[in-house]
Amino acid sequence: MHIREMVFKRKLDCVSVAFDYPNVPRGPRSCRRKILNKRTDEDDTKMCAMDLLASLAGKILEEGQSSSASSNAFEGNNHENFGKEIKTEREDHHNPLKSESSDQGNSVSRPTYENTSDKCVVNSFSFPDSDGILERTPMSDPHKKIHGETGDAHVNTGYEQGEATHGVRDGGLTTNTCNLEDETALGVQFPKPVCVDGDDLKSPSFVNMTPNGSLARHGNHTNLGRDDDEKLYSYHKCSNKFKSYRSPTIRRVRKSKYWKQVPKDFGHYRADVGRKVLHRKRKSCYGYNGWLRETIYKRRRSPDRSSVVTSDGGLSNGSVSKLPQNRDSVKLSIKSFRIPELFIEVPETATVGSLKRTVMEAVSVLLSGGIRVGVLVHGKKVRDDKRTLSQTGISCEENLSNLGFTLEPGPSKVPIPLCSEDPVVVTPTEPTSLCERSAASPTLDSGIPIADDVINSGNVMDNNLELVPYQSEISVDDPSSESRALVPLPALEVKALAIVPLNQKHKRTELAQRRTRRPFSVTEVEALVQAVEELGTGRWRDVKLRAFENADHRTYVDLKDKWKTLVHTASITPQQRRGEPVPQELLDRVLRAYGYWSQHQGKHHARGAPKDPDMNRGRALESV
DNA sequence: ATTAGGG
DNA sequence: CCCTAAT
């Protein structure tokens, strides 16, 4: 059976950030902010996606590669670590420099956001191997071109319109087709052609990054996990339209003042960054693999009345099952899936590593949105899920070459509505499946597929990527369409979709999204109070560094604002307070610190904490 | 890049 | 949380 044809369409707006701080672009604060916000959301989304995927992957992937435990530390238990962090900090509070240094050294659980974004257009990537390992497309691939000269040059032509074309093109046709009776190969590939050259999209050509499509899983993982930390980030000067995004982490790194203070920590920091990145990557990979495996697994054992074909559960490409079969059964070997197009924008200066990561991000988002499989018979989409295979024309007697599969954005999550202004295709989405975040703010801006936010994995994800599913697909499950099991796939739609993505971002970019609300936990409040007690109320940056350095989603402005509200909260009656109640003890400290620092207008900051012992009542002032 | 404040 | 103005 040949499979392929899934088309996910999405656009990625990527802004590249550089870890190379000297080159980090600076932009208007407002812009940065927006971007930042954006990123956060994105991260959240990713996070969720990742979690989801990770769960799917389950233990299957565990052995794949050992992952650094430390990198996970932060994840999932922000608070715990947070507390840890704080403790550590306390040991040397009053000495910002020192504490910072020590932090670096300890680098306990310092999540680093991977920054991905580069503005460029990547049209295709391939997912090879059966294990679901994502193979990144090397830039060197002749079929792919990335242009970075213009921020807006992404043109997409509807090369994907013809399903048939794909099949032929991917050269995998032959391999994709297999005999019904002989085996079940579960190799899955996501070959996809894409060429973007300048503003033109060349005819698609199949790019098989993974020639054999059967790379060892381990090997892949390893690769994924390790590529170029340092090179991961590339810098690209963004046009005004594309505000550069940089993660908080990045920001810290480039902070000149900060670095002047503790230059020696740079190395550590970088290393840490690399680690984090690594972690993230792994995560992504696993997630992806997990998903793939899951998919495959299901497919294998799928059918209602069908027997499980696989015994080994192994997903390696080319695995063959020799289980006895019924004459009526249909065996399929899926060598590749076609996924929706992914539009990625990356500057020429981007590194291959960043490109890879960007693609990974795109894929992750795609997957996080839910995926479903579409079946094509003779190029026509089979909409009626109730039909039997034989009724549909799929049987051992049939030439399975007529059978195709597509991966489509699933109903679980939906693609984001495109900019209203755009005339083109708007993806009808199913509100019900939208994540909270997305539902709340469908408008995405610059679509920056950034690394997942390791923190707050619980937050809803939202992605900047745009999934542009085939419109025709959207109603696939519609029961009412039973009458016509086979529905021609409207090429035009596809075409239209192909075009859409590229222009949207600009407008969208302008539309900043509000960051997701992230109420401070008691733990955080405690940390904040502690820091303010020591540093005063006018040194938010220091507070941030001291107590929230790992909480990249908390900016110093956030801390300042929180403090503001805390003071207010402490001033009102308990009945008037809302949200998660803050222990009175903390509120008392807030008022105490507030009063203290109001009088000691920062005169003692050098010293840090107020001398007034009562201020930290019950708390050792060891470092004061 | 930070800080301070209003919205 | 966001936005602006002023540093």
UniProtKB/TrEMBL annotation:
Superkingdom per UniProt: Eukaryota
Domain HTH myb-type, chain residue ranges per copy: 512-571
One Pfam family named in its UniProt record: Ubiquitin_TPR1
Keywords, comma-separated and alphabetical: DNA-binding, Nucleus, Transcription, Transcription regulation
TM annotation in the entry: none
Residue ranges, compositional bias (Basic and acidic residues): 89-101, 609-624
CDD domains tied to this protein: SANT_TRF
SUPFAM superfamilies, alphabetized: Homeodomain-like, Ubiquitin-like
Domain Myb-like residues, every copy: 512-567
Major location category of this protein: nucleus
Locations listed in the record: Nucleus
MF term (GO), any: telomeric DNA binding
A single cellular component GO annotation: nucleus
Stretches the record annotates as Disordered: 89-115, 302-322, 601-624
Compositional bias ranges of the Polar residues kind: 102-115, 305-322
PANTHER family for the chain: TELOMERE REPEAT-BINDING PROTEIN 3, TELOMERIC REPEAT BINDING PROTEIN
Name the record gives this protein: Uncharacterized protein
Organism: Brassica carinata (Ethiopian mustard)
